[in-house]
Write a structure and sequence with these properties.
By secondary structure, this protein is mainly alpha-helical. The chain is 48% helix and 10% strand. It contains 8 helices and 6 strands, in the order βαααββααααββαβ. A two-stranded antiparallel sheet has the order 1-6. It has a two-stranded antiparallel sheet with strand order 2-3. The protein has a two-stranded antiparallel ribbon with strand order 4-5.
Length: 176
């Protein structure tokens, strides 16, 4: 089964909507209903996400019958991390331990540092991949740098798992 390290649905929907708007060319606003239908995400939830992306400067919006949403800048200038943080805030380490347990036990502190390393790796991977990268379907997007992990990753069944990922879905649902 494994332990998922994943984005929230809201962040995943935000990334998908941002990619969709980028694919539309940006010459005119696209209505939220069109984006929701194309991305197959719930309309009411998506509207709130799009509004958050407007507030953080990734998108702009226009009111009225010809209004809608469009990107505020080029897809190559939008790191995935900006979309994720615009919706959910920073990626944080979560070892599952209380602060006093971390302070009291060296092993707990080490575990917490390891979880921070995973959070830092995820942040860096999302920072270096852009909306344009997802549009290009580039297999090297977010690829794991050599030596990023000292040992191979294994599934719950003990099978070795490849850490290299090449699609948008793998960037949005990392598994370790």
């Amino acid at each position: 089964m494994g332990v998922p390290v994943r984005l929230s649905k809201a962040s995943a929907y935000g990334v998908l909507a941002t990619v969709y708007l980028a694919e539309q060319g940006g010459d005119r606003p696209v209505q939220a209903a069109t984006v929701a239908q194309a991305c197959r995400v719930p309309f009411n939830h998506l509207v709130k996400i799009l509004q958050q992306l407007v507030r953080c400067g990734i998108m702009s919006s226009e009111r009225g019958p010809r209004g809608g949403f469009q990107l505020a800048c080029a897809p190559s200038d939008i790191p995935l991390l900006n979309v994720v943080q615009g919706i959910d805030g920073p990626i944080l380490a979560n070892s599952g331990l209380e602060p006093d347990a971390i302070a009291a036990r060296p092993a707990a502190a080490q575990l917490h540092r390891m979880c921070q390393d995973v959070a830092d790796f995820a942040s860096e991977r999302l920072r270096t991949a852009t909306i344009r990268d997802l549009m290009s379907n580039d297999v090297s997007v977010g690829a794991r740098p050599a030596g990023a992990f000292s040992a191979p990753l294994h599934s719950a069944r003990g099978e070795e798992v490849s850490a290299a990922r090449s699609s948008a879905s793998s960037l949005l649902n990392l598994r370790v």
